[in-house]
Amino acid sequence: MKREEWKSAAGFLLASIGSAVGLGSIWRFPYIFSHYGKGNFLFAYIISVIFFGLPLMFLEFASGRKFKGSVTTVFAKLNSKLKWLSLLPIIVVFFILSYYIVIVGWVFGYFINSFLMIEIDFAQYSSSMFPTISTLLSLIISSAIVYFGIEKGIERFSKIFMPLFFVILLIMFVFVLTLPNAYKGVGDYFKINFSDMIDGKVWLFAVSQALFSLSLGSGIMITYGSYLSRKENIPVSSLIIALSVIFTALLNSIIIFSFIHSSKEIVSGSKLAFEVMPKIFSEISLGNVMQVLFFSLTFIAGLTSAISMKEVLVAFLVDELKLERKISLTVLFFALLILSISISLNYSGFFLEKINLLEKLDFIFGGLMLILSSILTSLVLSWNWNTKSLIEEVDIKLENVNKKLDKFVERDVFLLLVRFILPFVLLLLLLSEVGI
Asked: Is residue 164 part of a domain?
């Protein structure tokens, strides 16, 4: 059976940007930005995207397109003895998706209530049955999109909702420029103190955020790359995706900083989205409108990431177990239903009250295992792929500028980064995460 392909370059780019611009870019980036060096972190983040994120993205897209399969198919074709290692990114994606669906459900619930102008207290909301209902709805919506496949499902959804995402983002950006003292909440964040640039923690978090925000190391870009046609320029597409993610993270951070101002603490995750922001919206003019826009923006970001993770798992079941797409999605739906509903009920306090399953899974799979998966992906793809074939597939295309420069960048810089430097930096990050 011929593998489905993206119908257009725009569809592929919007779907990939949607995958990358997830909840992490909306509420994780502003927190890390403000707590780990501000302008210094921004500088380190952009450098990390260029020298670590882009090379790994080249590698993942190229391997997916070359070997036309899921992450397991790619690993097996490169080295059959290492096929079992591909189960790590599959497991990581499954567990991340299991609690990610829950959070997307919260966002959806807040969007509906904001649209109906119903005020919500997060403590009361999260301890009720409403989050579980929202979890079920987010699971159904994401499954419905993936059900229709690449062209009619993911690509069509991305073509409609990602442009809407950026329109909403720009509307909110223009609005915050009208707020009194908004600039006071932004100015300090973009100052760079080069004397602090030697702080290793800033650089480690910058690398982590770069890979996290670009959806790397989890098999997503390998899977999306497997639907790429031969005519697509991987380096150019990757650069567009990376710049879009940086642009979104910065613009969203400016919006958040402008709303909060420097007098209030920047927090991360659910507290920022479900407690801090609604309180701010309740205190400003047109706050109801801005709250609806904020949660619609966040919902689109979360949903596009969720469907990309779901596609990784569906592609695995189709390629490896030879199941039909509909059957694969049905199996995945019920597996996620059991785990995601359990996580939601646990967070609401209906069982295992002393253990927060969502936070535990996020630390283990969204943190430690995702870093380990990124290390394995970089090493397996770069070391087991014939160098000549790898370079030809990635094709950075600098020969028109200078042939010697093209050879230097492809064979020396690119290979050095993905084979040695990136795995080493990620290993340091992993060790720091476990406290070693």
From this structure: yes
- Position 272 in a domain: yes
Q: How is residue 165 written in tokens?
A: 């995402």
pLDDT, position 78: 96
What is the model's pLDDT at position 263? 45
Could you give the number of structural domains in the chain?
1
The domain that contains 131 carries what CATH number? 1.10.4160.10
Q: Extract the residue ranges of the chain whose pLDDT is less than 70.
A: 1, 37, 181-190, 192-198, 261-269, 398-402, 406, 436
pLDDT in tens, 339-353: 999 999 999 888 777
The whole-number pLDDT of residue 275 equals 86
- The answer as to whether 394 is a domain residue is no
What would the 3-class secondary structure string for 80-133 be? HHHHHHHHHHHHHHHHHHHHHHHHHHHHHHHHHHHHCCCCCCHHHHHCCCHHHH
Q: Each residue of 107-133: pLDDT tens digit?
A: 999 999 999 988 888 888 888 889 999
For residue 156, what are the domain limits?
Answer: 9-359
pLDDT reported for residue 198: 67
Position 408 in a domain = no
